[in-house]
Amino acid sequence: MLRFLANLLVVFFLFSLSISANALPTLGLGPFGPGVQDGTAPFNADGNCANDTAKANAGDDCGEKNNQVRNQDTVIYNWSVTANNYTPGQANPKNVVLEQILHPSTHAAVGFERIPARCTPAGDGGTNPPSSITTEANGDIKLICNLGEFNEGQQVSFSVAVKVSGESWNGETFTSTQRIYSNADDGTANATTATSPEIGPIEISARPMLDLISSVFRGYYVYGKRDIGNGLENGYYTYYNFRVATHKKMGTEAIPQPFSFISELGAKKLAENGANYIGNGMEYYITQCIYNPSGWGDEVYGKETYGSLSSYPLEKKVIESGTCTFARTNPAQKDSSYTMTVTGADLSGSRFPKKTIGGSDLSAGPYYYIDMRVQFFIPTRVIDLADG
Q1: What keywords does the record list, in alphabetical order (predicted)?
Q2: Residue 81 burial (CB < 10 Å; 0-12/13-18/19+)?
Q3: What's the CA gap between 6 and 302, in Å, rounded?
Q4: Helix, strand, or coil (residue 118)
Q5: Among residues 245, 206, 210, 211, which one has the least CA distance to residue 46?
């Protein structure tokens, strides 16, 4: 009888220990509402989609449920997090954390657009660990979203946005893995971890669609002197701008840098329909090529760090025009063209100017990446040879 009671006590103790060891709150993670939305309207811009779940041609997208997304577009992950099965008297988990990791292929440039507001202390999020976005050594991108304290039966839904950069190559992919967990301040688990199935691969759709645009001749002259090989000469400095833009806000693939193009100055003698000066001695010299700092109304400013935001608002600036260099195609011929080379420009398309300097609306395009100002010098004697 005593042996039976002893065995019964051991069994009861082990059973009680088992209950205690497993009596942690149960966390749940799954899609909410539309789940994953891989892209935003307008879709089928090229008109070649058979339906909204088909794969589009490069640079286009057929819909938000086809595992395809354009450059410069956004993938939205809509999450639902739940907490249940609390033990009576047990303290609530104080730091319930969503960990979401993006796994991009070699030439997929993607990232979390921001830390969701729900993951911040102002949005009832927790602080241990603090919410963060980091890039791992292997190139993965990790979001830590601390949702804070959860009561039993609580459900929270929120969205996580992922932006696809214009630096991504067409056909590259990325996947997402995610889990929800909670630890006490000492690092021990105080709720059961839950995972959600891997999402993707989502394929990136892009094609080069950049335009090179030259402004009109400014008709703005600054008198000066310059040594162009024969001592100081009188002459005039004047300007034109060139811009790089796309007509589509999404789906544009960045071109490799540096990139180059030919710039040639044209001029007419005496009248607009007069004889062409090109190849007939129209001597000129490009002297400067920089991001646009000038306030001409049809331009935008050439980098977002130029000037104060109060005087030079962000909505009138590109991100970064980069560095411009120039070289005469035939140094011995003083009327020959120049090769212009640009490097270091931001071609991601993560943000575009919304207005020109003069206030014209750019919401429907063109979508500018670069605005450079080119200065050139024309000797006075060249103008005199044209009879004024």
Answers
A1: Signal
A2: buried
A3: 84
A4: helix
A5: 206
- Write down the residue that tokens 């100081």 correspond to: 232
pTM of the model: 0.83
- The CATH 2.60.40 portion of the chain extends over 28-205
**H helix runs in the chain, sequence order:** 2-22, 380-385
**Would you mind telling me the total number of residues written for the chain in this entry?**
388
* CATH topology (fold) of 28-205: Immunoglobulin-like (2.60.40)
CA nearest 349: which of 334, 367, 331? Answer: 367
pLDDT digits (tens, 9 = 90+) for 180-193: 999 998 889 999 99
**Rg of the chain, C-alpha, whole Å:** 31
For residue range 268-299, list pLDDT tens digits in order. Answer: 766 667 766 655 567 899 999 999 999 999 99
Q: What is the DSSP letter of 357?
A: T
